[in-house]
Amino acid sequence: MRQSAKSKTEGQKPRGRGIHPALFYSMFAVLLGGNALLGTALLMAPDISRLLGGQNDMVLSAYEDRLAQMRVEIDRLHSRNYAQAGDMNLQLQELSAQQEVLLEQHQLVRALVTKADQLGLAAVAAPEASDMDLSMVTTLDGNPDVEATAATVTQMMDETQQAMTGIALAATERTENIVTELGKLGIELDLPDAQFAGMGGPLLAANDAAATSPMIEDANAVMDALLIYKAARDSLSFAPVHMPITGNFRQSSGYGNRKDPFTGNRAFHSGLDFAAPTGTSVLSAADGVVSFVGEKSGYGKVVEVTHGNGLFTRYAHLSAYIAKEGQQVHTGTPIAKVGSTGRSTGPHLHFEVHRGENSIDPKPFLDTGKRILAMLG
């Protein structure tokens, strides 16, 4: 029994001893106190204190430098924003000025269109004020879209410029047509020429403040074209190109050689005959002055009207007179009544056109009048 107990005791290893708690806490307290004393000594040492203080100054100086750099960057950004804002304000001011020009241009176009309509020109479309959105175009975030607004204003200005150009072209084209048609008849028109308008005055230094804008100059050019067209159109009134009779009539005889209705032989006929009922009104073929009222051999009762360009018209075989000699008449003024006086086979108007004492074919005159009136609508 003793042997087994002994052997059991020998089989167990002896336990090691640990650090006593009191000793551990005592050592920790000593170490902490030493560190505290060492830190206090270091902080109190002048050289070490200056060293640590210098490090802090360096860090603080670097931080302040960084702040200063940040302030510079912020100021730079602000300056850039202010510049951008200034550019936008300048752009907006320019757009505002363009809008004012556009409105003025539109008013000029409307005035020119009204004048063109008064002169019988085909209507030239001008942008209506209600169709013009002159407000500032904005982006989705509500900021002004300068480029889109500028494009809109430019487009509108182009449209009004095209309208002015269209009026000038229409007036010029019609003027040229009238001049060409009447020129074929030997009728020369005395039209105003804007290039040779009378001018004068003392020679003074230019005044930039009083300079005329290109838009005003363009509008004046269009108005000149309208005035020249008006003069050409008014000249038509003095050309015997209008029908001297209306109502129920027919052309019964032409100008030139024909078979004489009385002798049956060939004879020269100096005018056009329009068969019509007795009493049908005879109209002046153009503006002029009644230069003769009376009877002439072979013509019966006659009225003659003198026009410009050395022309006069003769109306014969009348049944009655309406106009008096010396009377100023206009195109379409009733001057007499259809009859069958003189050498005539029945009621009709004998119509002649004379340049000087020589008769000329009236048909080209009347055909020209028809073409021009068709053109004028």
TrEMBL record:
Transmembrane stretches, start-end: 21-45
Gene3D superfamilies in UniProt: Glucose Permease (Domain IIA)
Entry keyword annotation includes Ribonucleoprotein: no
Keyword Membrane in annotation: yes
Alphabetized GO MF terms: metalloendopeptidase activity
Family matches, as Pfam families: Peptidase_M23
Keywords: Membrane, Transmembrane, Transmembrane helix
Classification via InterPro entries: Cell_wall_metabolism_enzyme, Dup_hybrid_motif, M23ase_b-sheet_dom
Domain M23ase beta-sheet core span(s) in chain numbering: 268-362
PANTHER family named among the record's database cross-references: M23 FAMILY METALLOPEPTIDASE (PTHR21666:SF285), PEPTIDASE-RELATED (PTHR21666)
Protein name: M23 family metallopeptidase
Natural source organism: Devosia sediminis
Record lineage: Bacteria, Pseudomonadati, Pseudomonadota, Alphaproteobacteria, Hyphomicrobiales
